[in-house]
Every structure is written in C-alpha cells, then in structure tokens.
Amino acid sequence: MSSGPTSAFFDELARREYEPLLAKAVGTVRFEIDDGARRERWFVTIDKGHIAVSRKNTKAGTTVQADRETFDKAAAGTLNVMAAVLRGEIVISGDPRFLVRLQRLIPRPSGRP
C-alpha cells in the first residue's frame, strides 16, 4: 500500500466516523485508484452520517475510478472533482448523486467557492 494524499484522505475519513454534512445520506462507494500495474480500492459506507472505510473489493452503489496522480490532486484539494469528472479524468458508474454528496468530504481547491 502506498502513502500520499490519497491514503491520507481515506485514513482521515475513517477517523471521522461521523460527518454531520451527510446526516441524510445512505449508500456505498468503491474508489478504484490505478497506479500503473496495481489498483488500490477503498470501500466507503455512509449510513446517515456514520462513515466506515475498508479495503473490501465488493459491489457498491457508486464506483469512482481514477489514476493515482489525479486522485492525489483531488485528495490534496488542488483538483475540483466534478470538473475532473466532466473532463473524463475521474470516471463514475452507478449513482452519481451519491458522489455529489460525498464530494462534501473532499477538499476543495483554494480560492474557489
């Protein structure tokens, strides 16, 4: 497993355990981060604000795929996730509305609303 902004993001998310901004959200998302020859996965469950993060490779309501460099930028707050989705740098399958909710947890680029 690697370190860096992506791993730090998921570690921090796991430590939160509860996020009031997601008090009405229920769902699962699997993040698949490609780093050359390997793919790392994080499985995030949100249940009315309660957050659980694991490394399970299981079916989720929403799947997010990105390369390591792209997601590192998003996790560090230097890349707008929705803009990256529109450019095809991040690919979403399943329920994109859930990513819109989960985006509240991803740092926003500085200087942007």
**Could you estimate the helical fraction of the residues in percent?**
25-40%
Radius of gyration of CA atoms, rounded to a whole number: 13 Å
Poorly predicted sequence stretches spanning 5 or more consecutive residues: none
Determine the number of helices (DSSP H or I, runs of at least 4 residues). Answer: 4
How can the largest sheet be summarized?
A: 5 strands, mixed
Could you state the oligomeric state of the chains shown? single chain
Major beta sheet, strand line-up:
3-2-1-4-5
Order of helices and strands: HEEEEHHEH
Average pLDDT for all residues: 89
Report the β-strand fraction as a percent range: 25-35%
Structural shape: globular
**What structural category arises from helix and sheet content?**
alpha+beta
